[in-house]
Hints:
Number of domains: 1
Low-confidence stretches: none
CATH superfamily: NADP-dependent oxidoreductase domain
Strand order of the largest sheet: 3-4-5-6-7-8-9-10
Amino acid sequence: MKYNQLGNTGLFVSEICLGTMTFGGQGMFKIVGEVDQKGATGIVSRSLEVGVNFLDTADVYSMGNSEKLTGQALKDIGAKRSDVVIATKCYGRVGPGPNDLGASRGHIMDSVSRSLERLQTDHIDLYQIHGTDSVTPVEETMRALDDLTRQGMVRYVGCSNWQAWKIMKSLGISQNNGYARFETLQAYYSIAGRDLERDIVPMLNDQKVGLMVWSPLAGGLLSGKFGPGSNGPEGARRAAFDFPPVNKDRAWACIDAMREVGSAHGGASVARVALAYILAKPFVMSIIIGAKTMEQLDDNLEAVKLTLTADEMKKLDEVSALPPEYPGWMLARQGAERRPQPKT
Length: 344
């Protein structure tokens, strides 16, 4: 297991982050998974055994039940708190009231206290705003998060599913006011959905913000169990919840190419190749994996041992290439002579 810096901080997190959306099985999240406490404890224990030190959850997952099961699992295992980096999120609706969602100061302050109680801990290592709030001023959100870090309830802050321009705005506000800044972005990225590379990745590199990848298997579509005209096995999550949106024709081509690559690596699964491809990207800090069974978990964890060759990466890059989009194609045309020249 490799460990990478959390953004521009001195904290190191495992390149695999255990996502706990499969824990709890309540509400709409029953589709994702119905892992009970015994199963959750086993999955967390196995992950820690192989070097995972990073866990991600959210207050909306199974109406808070995911946080409860995660916290209890760590307690049951007897994990040393300083050995585990716990990340959770707030923003989504957690009640019927008009203020039971969003990134307002009020909702953030209410939410963090409840998450701490469910997780059975006195601090959250990484507290993330789960979505972009079109109503709350960014200044209000960043001030509230800074207060939480000063109070010791939260150690680092991040965001999820934010636009590049809005992250830049938040970084400017933090820098100008001496606030805690977003150290991470949690975003969707997979070999079948590389849109992030257009604007967000260059911004992350420039600002030294760490990328946490959610759904690197595109909601299970890249598990190897799906293909043209097939909805996958009975009970498959993707068959019941077709999300995130994916260009299926491009995805099938990617899967065919990954099968070939997997065959060259002793029959590695399509899922394992898909994860190894994302792990090989230099701008990826950590990828979030979720599992309903130990078999799924072990196969995903094996991705850290799979090193793709330069030719294999080139092949996968080409089959999954994004179509040209403005201003990207113009930047490439006009900037050809302004790239650093190789030394002779």
